Structure formats: structure tokens, C-alpha cells
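[recover] target loaded
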């Protein structure tokens, strides 16, 4: 998490008041999606030739139609004012991390050789929550290169239960003798 992203996210957390962090996170993620999906929006917001008042008008109109919380709108406008829209993904990720810390949530990523069904993902999420003693949010991904099994990423720790991981381990054991 970058210094700028963390500072902005910390300021937003302090300003939340009674607003639900998950709602604000949803708003910020939506705005980030718009920046990717609508190049004209990003170009307009980043164009120094367009007055801030016009940019603010556009942001307010689009955000209000999408049902953004007022604090989310003010945060977007702060990023536009300070010419920090290019760091938007950093802001969202830093805010997500701080919200998770605040709510005691652990994020995990599971990479499997085949798509994992929702029931299996929920079962894994429940089991991890039981083991860790706190709520866990599991994100899944697929990598056919694993051949079978799965890899679990918890923070900076990787648990490799994949066929590829087992073969690499076996190879290293054979090479060492």
C-alpha cells in the first residue's frame, strides 16, 4: 500500500462517522470501474483545461444517480481537486485493507486448477474462519497450470497444496539427494 493511498484512505476512515464502510467501499469500487470502462470520464476529469466546477458537476450528477453516499462523492471530488485520480486503485485497496482491519476481516485468495463452486467456496470460507477465529472473505481464481489441488494465499503466506507444488517439492528433494 503506497504512502499516498494509505494517507487518503486513513483520512476517509476518520471522516466516515456513521456511514457504513462497506457502502463507501462499494461506491469507490464503482467509480474505479467507471474510470476503466468509460475512458471519456477519466479524460475529462484529468484534463487541466476543463474547470473544476464542470468536473464537480459531472461527478456529482453521475454519483447521485448511482446512489453514492455523500462522503463518497466528497472523496471523489477531493481526488479530482488534488489531481490524484490516477492513484484511484491505490485508494480503494488501501481503504479496503483499513476497513478489513477495522472489522477484523481476513482476506484470502484461493487458486485452483478448476473453477470452485459457490458451495465449496463457502465451506472453505467457513472452515478458515473457524481456524483463524475471525471472519474471512475468500476470493477464488483458476489456474490450469496447477494441474490439480489448490494454493491458498493468506496475507503474505502461501500454502501450496497443488500438484505442481508437490512436483516441485519432490524435484528439489531429489536434487538435494
Amino acid at each position: 500500500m503506497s504512502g499516498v493511498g494509505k494517507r487518503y484512505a486513513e483520512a476517509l476512515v476518520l471522516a466516515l462517522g456513521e456511514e457504513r464502510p462497506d457502502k463507501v467501499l462499494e461506491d469507490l469500487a464503482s467509480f474505479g470501474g467507471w474510470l476503466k470502462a468509460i475512458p471519456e470520464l477519466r479524460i475529462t476529469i484529468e484534463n487541466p483545461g476543463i474547470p473544476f466546477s464542470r468536473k464537480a458537476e459531472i461527478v456529482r450528477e453521475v454519483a447521485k444517480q448511482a446512489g453514492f453516499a455523500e462522503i463518497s462523492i466528497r472523496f471523489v471530488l477531493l481526488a479530482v481537486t488534488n489531481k490524484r485520480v490516477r492513484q484511484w486503485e491505490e485508494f480503494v485497496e488501501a481503504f479496503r485493507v483499513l476497513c478489513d482491519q477495522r472489522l477484523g476481516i481476513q482476506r484470502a485468495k484461493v487458486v485452483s486448477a478448476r473453477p470452485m463452486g459457490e458451495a465449496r467456496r463457502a465451506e472453505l470460507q467457513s472452515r478458515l474462519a473457524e481456524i483463524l477465529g475471525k471472519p474471512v472473505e475468500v476470493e477464488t481464481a483458476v489456474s490450469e497450470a496447477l494441474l490439480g489441488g489448490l494454493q491458498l494465499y493468506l496475507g503474505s503466506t502461501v500454502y501450496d497444496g497443488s500438484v505442481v507444488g508437490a512436483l516441485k517439492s519432490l524435484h528439489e528433494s531429489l536434487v538435494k539427494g
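[recover] notes: The two ends are 41 Å apart (CA to CA).
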